[in-house]
Write a structure and sequence with these properties.
about 325 residues, alpha+beta, Alpha-Beta Plaits, five-stranded mixed beta sheet, five-stranded antiparallel beta sheet, 10 helices, RRM domain-containing protein, RRM_dom, repeat, Nucleotide-bd_a/b_plait_sf
Length: about 325
């Protein structure tokens, strides 16, 4: 196939600017690639001309195929589940939240070879995206301290760099968010709540579907079955981009929302249970004390306690004599 297209124009909806999305080497468009730029998209559509109805693009085995064998001359628009379509209409087709809504931060690179230059460092890390800053920390003599900083222009590039190990000039190096900023990013939830599950949807089904949006670290469906589950992503921005959307898995519309920590969800319930428990303990304790008091007051005095002095009357007389 000669002059195969390498990019196709795609936009969220009509009236917005188009973005050129890269194609695979076989001329198809990967759903993973499309979702990286338009999170939550489930399909693509196009028109033959301005008077024709929309046509859906063929999706097979995780790849979109060119209409009638050619991408040329067409512009493509994103297709969302019905719930998302209404939201887009209500917000005047505002783009979905995703990588472009997340801000970048400086990344620290640890374990750098001492002979590495900024130019060599840039040449390696530019493969993940456009860099706006590359810096190697040096001492007063100009010698490398073995670590440095990089900063990407867009969040998707930052996520790619953070999501894998790096081998630079025959040495493994570590890329991470500096400790001073790590606390903020660690608070961003990586887990999503998947509602409306049916019993024929398994953990592998969820893993297969949601892996197109990013790397998954865990999938969990509670047993016994309770019609919901959880999916945890390596990148918090992917999880956030999927929230408040509906996704079709095995013909079932699943609603995605943020998975709140268990401690937050059950805090009030735990406090209530503790209060009920303490009230029960207090009530039962007071009741037991009252019963013990009644039993003590009604207990008969044994006669043998006065046996030393004989009968009660003798005891009284003896007390007088002893005075």
């Amino acid at each position: 196939m000669e002059n195969i297209e390498k990019y196709i124009p795609v936009c969220e909806c009509e009236g917005e600017d188009f973005m050129e999305i890269p194609l695979e080497s076989d001329g198809t468009l990967s759903t993973a690639t499309l979702s990286a730029y338009f999170p939550g998209v489930t399909g693509l559509k196009f028109r033959l001309d301005s008077y024709s109805p929309y046509r859906a693009l063929r999706l097979y085995d995780g790849k979109f195929h060119a209409p009638e064998g050619s991408w040329a001359g067409h512009k493509f628009y994103c297709v969302h589940p019905k719930g998302d379509k209404r939201k887009l209409e209500e917000t005047d087709c505002k783009p979905s939240k995703g990588y472009h809504s997340m801000s970048c931060t400086d990344l620290i690179v640890l374990g750098l070879p001492y002979q590495l230059s900024e130019t060599q460092m840039r040449e390696y890390f530019v493969q993940f995206g456009k860099l706006v800053m590359v810096q190697i920390k040096r001492d007063a003599s100009g010698n490398s301290k073995g670590f440095g900083f990089i900063r990407y222009e867009d969040y998707s590039s930052q996520a790619k760099a953070l999501g894998q190990r790096h081998y630079v000039n025959n040495r493994w190096v570590e890329v991470k968010i500096p400790a001073s900023k790590e606390g903020y990013y660690s608070k961003v939830p990586h887990k999503i709540f998947v509602g409306r599950l049916t019993e024929d949807i398994s953990e592998p089904d969820l893993s297969k579907y949601f892996s197109q949006y990013g790397e998954i670290t865990d999938v969990f469906i509670p047993k016994p079955f309770r019609a919901f589950g959880f999916v945890t992503f390596n990148d918090a921005s992917v999880a956030q981009s999927l929230c408040d959307e509906d996704h079709i898995v095995k013909g079932v519309s699943l609603h995605i929302s943020e998975a709140n920590p268990k401690s937050d969800q059950n805090r009030d319930k735990q406090v209530s249970n503790q209060q009920q428990y303490m009230s029960s303990v207090l009530t039962n304790g007071m009741l037991a004390a009252a019963l013990n008091q009644v039993a003590y007051q009604t207990q008969p005095i044994p006669y043998q306690t006065h046996r030393t002095y004989g009968k009660v009357q003798d005891w009284k007389r003896r007390a007088v004599y002893d005075m």
